[in-house]
Every structure is written in structure tokens, then in C-alpha cells.
Amino acid sequence: MTVRLIATDLDGTLLRDDLSVSPRTRRALDAVRAAGIEVVPVSARQPWGIRMIAEQAGFTGWALGGNGAQCQHLTTGEVLFEAHVDVAVQQPVAAALAERLPGVLFVSVRSGGEVFVAQDGYAQLAHFEDHKRDPATMGGHELTAVLAEPSLKFIVRHAEWAPSELIMEVRALGLDGFAVTHSGAPFVEILADGVNKAWAVAKLSAHLGIDRAEVLAFGDAPNDAELLAWAGRGVAMANAHPEAVAAADEIAGGNEEDGVAAVLELLLADLPR
């Protein structure tokens, strides 16, 4: 298999649990880039969350954020594409869930992922690790304000319901016009219809003239499953969720054991000299 693009998740995959890029992983990333292979972060994080670790990882080019809802160049700021959840979609979802699950709360991520409009009470449930954002900056808004504009990502959270349960509740509504997933964080993420990491990497690959068979992908969470199944070679981490494992072609070491670096080192060893 010829690899021309590496698409890697960040949290739980490329990054260690302390959100660092290990020296071994950085060396491997630099080596594959030097070999002419494109390396693209593909994350549930928004671009500002990806930029937090970009220098550590040496990311300077295209980045896919919001579970694939946005493609932005980290150096130039150019936006290649964005996909939004329409107001006409998120309003009935919120109304039906609020009736079905009293206490459910919502967030609209807008304006290229820079603006975070959280419903009153959401910040009290949140921790920095959830969104890589200080809960004190989230504010509190009436639901009508949360729902007033389209969202790159529309977040659903409940203090007593796990994401796996919330997803089933969202799907049970019988509504359409959106995609739903979760990344292992304590909330569910609603995206524009058809949007996921595979959709985004496919669009970027087409822009770069790279074939699906030339994509090597890494991931660990349910929101990585479509990408791992789509890529020419999909690698799940040893610490991965069962959905990611089932979608992958193979299993690497865990994120704490530099599993991505180990695969890249073997890839480099097989390159023609």
C-alpha cells in the first residue's frame, strides 16, 4: 500500500493522556512529512483546540475539526469547506429532546468553531477537558439564543444520561436531516447530514488528488469508526472503543505507548531508499 496521506485523531490516539505529543511521536511525524506524506489532524476539537497542540505535533497545514464539519489551513487560515446544522433542523431536535428528557442542555458551536453559545446551566456541568475551553468562558444563554443560528456542531448533554444512551434517544426521535455521534466525551454531537470524519477526509483527499486507497487513518473513538472503515488502511488504538476496533483493519499499541509512532516507524522502514 502506498501512503500519501495520514489522517489521525488526536485525543486518545496521537496524544498521550496528559494531552502531550511524545518526543518519539514527534520524530515519527517529522519523518513521514520529510518523506512527502501529508499528515492531517482529524478531530472533534474545533480549530482553536487543534492549534493548542499544533506546535507540539508540527501541524502547519490542513486540519479537520468539529468531527469533519470544517477544514481549515492552520497557517493561512483558509477554510476549504464547512458544513452547518441548519436552524430548521436543530430546533425540532431540541424541542423533542427537551420534552423527552427533562434537564437536557444544548450548545451551539458557531463562527468557524470560535464561538461557543451554551445554554444556561451547561457550564456548571462542564470541565476544561470536555471542550478544551474554560467553562467560565462559556456564558449562559436562553435556549432560543442557542438555537437562533446554524451550528458547525450542536451539542447535547444531560447530567444523568451517558452519551451512548443519549444517542439512542436522539435516534429514537425519528427526525432526519442530521448526523449524530460521540467522541468519548460526556455529550453527544449533532452534525450536518452526512458529515463525519470519513466524509471530510474524502473531500480533502479529492482536493489534494489523493485516492482513498492511499490514506492511512488512526482513531480510538466511535466518531472515528467511519474513517477507519473508509481509509485504505484503518488502525485503531489498543485503548479504542469497540466500535472503532470493529471498523479498523488492525490494532496498534495504545496512545500511552506511542502506538501511532510505532506504526509510522514501520511504514518508514518499508519506504524505498
From TrEMBL:
A GO term from the CC aspect: cytosol
UniProt xrefs under Gene3D superfamilies: 3.30.1240.10, HAD superfamily/HAD-like (3.40.50.1000)
Gene Ontology MF annotations: magnesium ion binding; phosphatase activity
InterPro entries per record: Cof, HAD-like_sf, HAD-SF_hydro_IIB, HAD_sf
Pfam families in UniProt: Hydrolase_3
CDD domains: HAD_Pase
Alphabetical list of SUPFAM superfamilies matching this protein: HAD-like
Superkingdom of the source species: Bacteria
Membrane-crossing segments per the record: none
Protein name: Cof subfamily of IIB subfamily of haloacid dehalogenase superfamily/HAD-superfamily hydrolase, subfamily IIB
